[in-house]
Amino acid sequence: MIDLHESARNALKACGVADAALTGPLPVRTPLTGEELLSVHEADAAETAAAIAAAHAAYLEWRVVPAPVRGALVKTLGRLIGEHKDELATLVTLEAGKIRSEALGEVQEMIDVCDFAVGLSRQLYGRTMPSERPGHRLMETWHPLGVVGVISAFNFPVAVWSWNTAVALVCGDAVVWKPSEKTPLTALACSALLDRAIAEHSAPADLHRVVIGAREVGEALVDSPLVPLVSATGSTRMGREVGPRVAARFGRSLLELGGNNAAVVTPSADLDLTTRAVVFAAAGTAGQRCTTLRRLIVHSSVVDELLGKLTSAYGKLPIGSPLDGDTLVGPLVDAAAYSAMNSALDAARADGGEVLVGGGRRQVAGAEGGYYAEPAIVRMPAQTDVVRTETFAPILYVLTYETFDEAIALHNDVPQGLSSGVFTRDQQEAERFLAADGADCGIVNVNIGTSGAEIGGAFGGEKETGGGRESGSDAWKAYMRRATNTVNASGQLLLAQDVSFV
């Protein structure tokens, strides 16, 4: 079997990470085998405060650099990521457990986001509005915001960072990044590549800082008045703490929290297409995406046929080491994730659910310490509390419906509101699902699964998902401040609304 330690060290070295960064008290374990790969330095609150102060000083210089020049730095970052795509994908696999295809896809997403941000650097548009006063011009301008604090999760260890960082940099901001303690090696590699881009463009050296650590590091970012925006990805529980603390100091928060995503399958659906889409959305990444399909709401007339197709496909899923090119389902991140999956399955059975396939632990040769779970399909008699709760594991709950209104009501009857889908060849059903009285999520799809969003659209959700938007569209506005400007060229003092003050 490949030497995982050596593979990680070689990938890090190729990206420019110094050996000195790979010594410290924080162990980094791989979900592939459960063994320790390396260890890294763990920051504390004081170090985090110093990093924030340094980033703020860099921001004061960076904010006056023209946006297209800022974009050139991000272009270089994208080039460097592309040159080290294989090494970064290797680290994603070793730390997060993703199969090679998904790991490469995540790194490609970073490259795409950099391309998007480079174009954005020449499109930070404001508006000119008609003034009611003659000789006056009314307009808006957008300015850099400050230091952006990024708190990311293990399941997308690099892509979510790039969504925030590439856009923040072209907007004129600095970034302080707290990665998950489970995936710090990918963070060190990305930071090293960005440091190279910063040096190549003679930009301020502290424009980007990484702080690796536990709760106190996150709290220092959340509570610092020098961090006007905190972008945090994680659980709803985490968001309940982050949001109010940032708001208490009148900062901004961009929250990407839990998802309990559902798809509705109608009588007219193409069941072969539906099966392929559902298997990837529900079992891909071992169910460890915020956009993973967790609930399938199927019309009673087609449920038996669809379940036959799905259970057959699940029974053939190649489960094993993500280093094996034939594997489609890799490991859960750790023992706690596997325990949570078992607890959810027990609760579903207690609620009358029937596990149709999966749910066990697959033993993988040479990886006895890894937790490889068999993706499960559970037919439920009703949408109970366990179904309404997101379990970060490959469990797909199947519910049935009779009317489309009932399907939409089931779909929306959860606290989360991230991603959704409907499978139908009926145009009226598709349009209803997309309408204001349809799915209540931030991402609403037709004839496609809930996962695998493209970077061009804004990513995020409603309700307990947090309401944040990142990546494409006009998500850049969260990283800037808006100023409304009035310019008086009339030579007279004219007041709005015909006010007279003599």
UniProtKB/TrEMBL annotation:
Acyltransferase in keyword set: no
Superkingdom of origin organism: Bacteria
Location of the Aldehyde dehydrogenase domain: 26-482
Entries under InterPro entries matching the protein: Ald_DH/histidinol_DH, Ald_DH_C, Ald_DH_CS_GLU, Ald_DH_N, Aldehyde_DH_dom, ALDH7A1-like
Transmembrane segments: none
Enzyme class: oxidoreductase
GO molecular function, one term: aldehyde dehydrogenase (NAD+) activity
EC number(s) recorded for this UniProt protein: 1.2.1.3
Keywords: NAD, Oxidoreductase
Residues forming the catalytic site: 256
Gene3D superfamilies (UniProt xref): Aldehyde Dehydrogenase, Chain A, domain 1, Aldehyde Dehydrogenase, Chain A, domain 2
Complexes and interactors: Homotetramer.
Family: Belongs to the aldehyde dehydrogenase family.
PANTHER family, A to Z: ALPHA-AMINOADIPIC SEMIALDEHYDE DEHYDROGENASE
Protein name, as recorded: aldehyde dehydrogenase (NAD(+))
Organism: Cryptosporangium phraense
